[in-house]
Model the fold of this input.
Amino acid sequence: MTDRPEDAFFTLHADLPREGPGETADVAWAAELAGLKPDARILDAASGPGGDIGALLRAAPSGHVTAIDLHAPFIIAAQARWGVDARVTLLTGDMTAPEGPFDFIWCAGAVYFLGVEAALRAWTPRLAPGGVIAFSEPCLFTDTPSEGALAFWEGYPRLTDAAGIAAQVAAAGFTTLATRRIGDIGWESYFRPMEARIARLRPGADAALSAVLDQAEAEIALWRAHRAETGYLLSLVSPA
Done:
């Protein structure tokens, strides 16, 4: 039984392989352009259950990944796979808390909790000299977005286009080195396991859980209908 909306939300998201859109090719793209060394020190900020840890370790096979998430069950899930790997440290807490220094900070789909400027400013003292940050942020890909494209982000107040994200990056004292859209593969890698979990949870779901499942299905349908207009933009940035 789930009595509270937040409980129902985490019931849906428990055991999903990822907590946001993305694919291993996104990590590889950022790591290559960043010139990541094999022994790089990496922060996986707001890591969820650790869906990107494997790709990060492939990019820096003799390095170290510190993965942190505020939701303890996600870290517990990551422990099942990565807890015995000496190259990985798993922490529960604020994604800006680890002190580093880090050569590479990776944040997939979670910067919006703080805003681009606030997140980059918080991570600046955590970067090693020459360090870079890669993050994905909601982005409009058209000057005339439809109501459905805007509705997908549920009134996110900082929603803007690529130029607007770059302006926020510059305001935080950083330079945008490169950008890349999170592609359909990345989104479906997130949504298809969620659809399968929705189907498993539907029978016997109470009112709170049913509402969360309905909302998730509506979100998936909105993205599929408007994916040409909006999505996540992955930005690779460095201190100016």
Observations:
- The chain has a mean pLDDT of 95.
- The chain is about 40% helix and 25% strand.
- The first helix runs from residue 5 to 13.
